[in-house]
Amino acid sequence: MPNMPNMTSLSTSQIPDEHQRISRPNIDELERPIDNPAIKTLLYPQESLPPIRHLPVETLSWIFILSVFSRDVDEWKKCRRHPMVFMISHVCRQWRTISLQCPELWSNLFPDSGVGTWSISYTRALLERSKQFPLTIVIKTREHRHHYSRYYELLVLALKHAERARVLHLDDHYGEDVAAKIVKRLSVISAPHLESFRFGLSRSLDIKHPLFQGSGVQKLRHLGLRYHGLESLPPLPSQLMTLDLDSPRTRITASEMLSVLSKLPYLEIISLCNCLLPESPPIDHPIRFNHLTSVSIADAVSNCVVMMENLIHTHSIKVSIKRLDRGVIPDWHQVNCLFETIGTPLNFQGDPGYLPLRTLSVKLTIPDRCVQGWVEVQHNPPRADVSPYLDIGLPAIPAKYTFHRRSNSWILRSCKLLQLRDVQVLHVSSEPFLPPESWLFAFEGAIQVHRLEIDQPGALGGFLKAVLTENEECGPDKLFPALKMMFIRQVDFDRKYRISDGVSSTLDVALLDFLKQRDSEGSRLEFLWMETCHFLPDEVFLVLLEHVDNAFWEGHDVRELGRGFYPEPIQRIPDSDEDYDSDQDWEDGWGEGLEGDE
């Protein structure tokens, strides 16, 4: 064979590489007209953003300020050895120059002996570098008692500049001597920049002269007082937006409180805890608020009712009402500069133009066996157009307390405040037995309820007894004639109650009787949902679909599950022969109405 110098022998592994070498330029040439415009489009936004070192000084300053004042930064500051403002100012020469030229960046004072032995120097540096910019001074709970002398020195240093304060929060428990010195200092200074003031030093401290007598508090927008009343301050500006009063030494009547509120037309948040004299007489002094967004009242039953009947709002608001038992005051939690909004839209008055209450939720629970009860209104977060619902809770039952008749009266009276004819969704939760009289008295006007949600066996037992008892007082025609959907949660169906004619019956049998009754009357349920429930026999499942269109158990369609799907029975301690709605429950006041209010 003749020699062929131009021929090159290729191995099998080299052939694909050679093909790629030859074809790649040709393919790139074909794709370039399409790729180039697309690449330019993708690169344009990236190229339009300059590196952070090229950003304007004003932009960098705002980024630094937002970083220092961020809530996330404040929550995690204990994990860092140095404050964020010092970390920013030591990144590079440019950042240090910018940070030192921004007084607002250094205006956040949190005297805390826990930052180290250099904390006094740190506070002095903040005061110097903030120049004359209004300060945010928040003195939190003293956690390092072994550094008390340093903590006190920091406190004195910060209060020397209290006249510059835009935010001044003194939420701590000091000794009487220190508290008296703080009051003396605040009594003689002016507060021309003060916008947010929160003050709570000592329950026994008597403030004889108003604070800030120098020039008043004309710029004040957010006010929170604990242990002290409004007499400890100069006259409040009408532009006040937040008023939070907690357990003042001197309490006033509901009428006097309404008179004070009438002079503050721009209020957005009202929070009153143990501020009113007990058993305030009924009054008629309604006040209309155009900006109100949140109301929280913790007081005696009559005071709560009087206040809510006289606070008229022109739009939906947040509402939280807590019933205080004598001598029991909730813990007072520190809040941030803007304060915490409490509680949601509610229509107490039913006047034209009000948002009608569509969803009512009543919770009768025993949370952590602590004395507390509440009326809360909340929005459904995923949908802004969903109308609010109301939560009404009874006080709990710790070992040293028992239910009184007043407890049941309170929830019934609260329900009576509402325009229940507009309620379409009702949620009731009660572990103790809720008598049929309570159901009928509180909800007889809720004729538009089409969705009923029941949690806990006590609520379900009381409801079934109310609708299955055939007499003039308790009849099926008085409760929820428009009912189409029913949700049942956290119920053991083997519980026994005296439901019909005084005969003990388990909840599963009573539920089936209820469904049969609705079906025979032509008001058959369209939907039944059971979740976190136990002890429903197979034979009941097979009968369910004869009297309800759709039934679901733990998220599964009963029609598809069929016989034998029910899980193994849960082992439980055998119950006594005594029914759950025993005489003890009735003696505690659950069966009483408004006539037992004393």
From TrEMBL:
Region (Disordered): 1-25, 571-598
Source organism of this protein record: Jaapia argillacea MUCL 33604
Biased composition (Basic and acidic residues): 16-25
Domain of life: Eukaryota
InterPro entries: LRR_dom_sf
Gene3D superfamilies on file: Ribonuclease Inhibitor (3.80.10.10)
Bias kind Acidic residues: ranges: 576-598
Protein name: Uncharacterized protein
Coiled-coil intervals: none
Biased amino acid composition, Polar residues: 1-15
